[in-house]
C-alpha cells in the first residue's frame, strides 16, 4: 500500500489523498475566502484551495527522523526502544526520533532527538528509507536511519521512557506502522549481511 492508499478517506474530506476534514479548514489564511478541495494542475492529490484568491494550503507530510539504534550482544542483534509517554501511541514501544526543525539537517535532527529523548549520542550508519505514516491526524514522512550508540548511557524522559534493548527477533508491540516497516527493512539488510 502506498501514498494516498494508506489513509482511509474521511467523510467530508477531499475525496482523495490525505483524509482532510474541510470543516476544520474553512477559510483561506491569506484572504479569508472559502477553501474548497481542488486538485492543482500536475498534482495527483487534492489540497484545500481558496475559491477567491487561489491560495493553496498544501497538505504535504512533515519530515520526521527515526533512529534505529542497534548493537550486537553475544551474537544477537538488539535495538534500543523506549515506552511512549504521550499520545499518539502512549504505552507502546518506539525508537527515538521526532520532527525535523526548520534549518536543521536530518543528521542534526537525529542527534538532537537522541540527546533529548535518551541522553545519548549516535552515529547514523545508513539510511533505511522514507516511510509515510500519521502522527495523530498529521501526515508525516518518517526518515529512518540505522544508528550506532557512540556516547552516553540511555536514560528515559517523559516522552520516551524505560529505554530497553530488545532482540530484533523478539520485539514488543510498536507505536507506529512506519517503525515496523523500517525495522523490516533493517532485518532484511542484516540478513543479507550475515
Beta-strand level of the residues, as a percent range?
Answer: 35-45%
* Total count of helical runs of at least 4 residues: 2
CATH topology of the largest domain: Nucleoside Triphosphate Pyrophosphohydrolase
CATH class of the largest domain: Alpha Beta
Strand tally is: 9
What class would the helix/strand composition place it in? alpha+beta
Main beta-sheet strand count, sense and barrel state: 7 strands, mixed
Q: Tell me the overall shape.
A: elongated
Give the tally of structural domains: 2
Name the CATH superfamily classification of the largest domain. Answer: Nucleoside Triphosphate Pyrophosphohydrolase
Alpha carbon gap, first and last residue: 29 Å
Range of helix content:
10-25%
**In angstroms, what is the radius of gyration?**
19 Å
Mean pLDDT: 87
Amino acid at each position: 500500500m502506498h501514498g494516498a492508499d494508506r489513509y482511509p478517506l474521511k467523510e467530508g474530506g477531499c475525496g482523495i489523498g490525505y483524509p482532510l476534514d474541510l470543516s476544520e479548514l474553512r477559510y483561506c489564511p491569506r484572504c479569508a475566502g472559502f477553501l474548497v478541495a481542488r486538485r492543482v494542475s500536475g498534482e495527483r492529490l487534492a489540497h484545500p484551495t481558496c475559491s477567491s484568491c487561489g491560495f493553496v494550503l498544501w497538505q504535504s507530510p512533515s519530515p520526521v527522523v527515526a533512529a534505529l539504534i542497534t548493537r550486537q550482544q553475544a551474537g544477537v542483534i538488539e535495538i534500543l526502544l523506549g515506552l511512549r509517554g504521550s499520545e499518539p501511541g502512549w504505552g507502546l514501544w518506539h525508537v527515538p526520533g521526532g520532527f525535523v526543525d526548520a534549518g536543521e539537517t536530518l543528521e542534526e535532527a537525529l542527534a538532537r532527538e537522541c540527546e533529548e529523548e535518551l541522553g545519548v549520542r549516535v552515529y547514523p550508519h545508513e539510511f533505511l528509507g522514507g516511510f509515510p505514516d500519521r502522527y495523530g491526524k498529521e501526515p508525516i514522512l518518517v526518515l529512518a536511519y540505522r544508528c550506532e550508540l557512540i556516547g552516553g548511557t540511555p536514560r528515559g524522559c517523559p516522552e520516551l521512557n524505560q529505554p530497553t534493548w530488545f532482540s530484533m527477533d523478539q520485539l514488543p508491540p510498536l507505536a507506529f506502522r512506519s517503525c515496523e516497516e523500517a525495522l523490516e527493512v533493517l532485518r532484511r539488510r542484516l540478513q543479507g549481511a550475515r
